[in-house]
Amino acid sequence: MPIVRVDKDLDNHTMTVVAEYDAPVERVWQLYADPRQLERFWGPPTWPATVVDHDLSANGRVTYFMTGPDGENSAGYWDVLEVAAPRRFVVEDGFADDTGQPNPNMPTTRMELELDDRGDGGTVMTVVSTFASTAAMTQMLEMGMEDGMRQAMGQIDGILAEAG
Amino acid sequence: MVVELLSTPETDQVFHALADATRRDIVHTVLIQEHSISALARRYPMSFAAVQKHVAVLNEAGLVTKQRRGRESLVRGDIEGVRNARGALDAFEQLWRDRVAQMDQILAEDR
């Protein structure tokens, strides 16, 4: 399995995914740089993506929509913040309305992607997703309850294990 | 779509509800066995009203259910609610697992 590690850090609202591929960095980069390849993996299996505009350069924008099993569409966009091809890009991933315009009422996710040589011709991909803090989450962090959150999630695992 | 899951008001409510040690302990306790609010109040160094308030927060977040029996209110853990809290994060993880697998498939076509 190409997934090596998934870390969820509730304190920082981040999730880190590390995956390895038996292909060189340049090839893995193409999966994102080529819209026809990007749309083949970006949507979940039941929600295939169609990439509309694709400008993966600093200040560029990528727009896409995903089509659900009942034909419903969910549109999204990337605001490209940083690009250092073929190793790194940072985008803000958000929701769009039917016309492809960003929906300012929905939270965005910051996605930082890095590709590194594994040393044997393979690639290590690290993706850090940072979620927007909603008002309540921010408030909790200000109240110094980061530990509470971590404990809470740990406890949920424990509760589920006990409850079967 | 999946991120929606993570930052809905409902999810915030769940995180807020679970950010308190007493409330976590209440969830834990009533998942194992239902308790009346007065029985719960005896477990903690706090007033009946304070426990009642904690239970209300948990109830709002969908982590426990309340049922009236005579003059008592019986509190029971809602296993589905607890599972959903975990599920929001797991959904995002699954999204990326799918992406990684689909990327691998495309790369496999090169070989």
Question: Could you give the topology of this structure?
Answer:
The complex is a heterodimer of chains A (164) and B (111).
Chain A: E1 3-9, E2 14-21, H1 25-33, H2 35-41, E3 49-54, E4 61-67, E5 73-84, E6 88-96, E7 109-117, E8 123-131, H3 135-142, H4 146-163
Helix pairs in contact in A: 1-2
Chain B: H1 2-7, H2 9-18, H3 21-32, E1 35-36, H4 37-43, H5 48-60, E2 64-69, E3 72-77, H6 79-108
Antiparallel strand pairs in B: 1-3, 2-3
Describe the fold and architecture.
- The complex is a heterodimer of chains A (164) and B (111).
- The radius of gyration of chain A is 18 Å and the shape is globular.
- Chain A has 4 helices and 8 strands, in the order ββααββββββαα.
- In chain A, strand 1 (3-9) and strand 2 (14-21) form a beta hairpin.
- The two termini of chain A are 27 Å apart.
- In chain A, helix 1 packs across helix 2.
- Helix content of chain A is 26%, strand content 41%.
- With 164 residues, chain A is an alpha+beta fold.
- Chain B is α+β, with helices and mostly antiparallel strands and 111 residues long.
- Chain B has 6 helices and 3 strands, in the order αααβααββα.
- A 3-stranded antiparallel β-sheet of chain B has the order 1-3-2.
- The relative contact order of chain B is 0.16.
- Residues 1-7 of chain B have low confidence and may be disordered.
- The interface between A and B is large, with 54 and 44 residues.
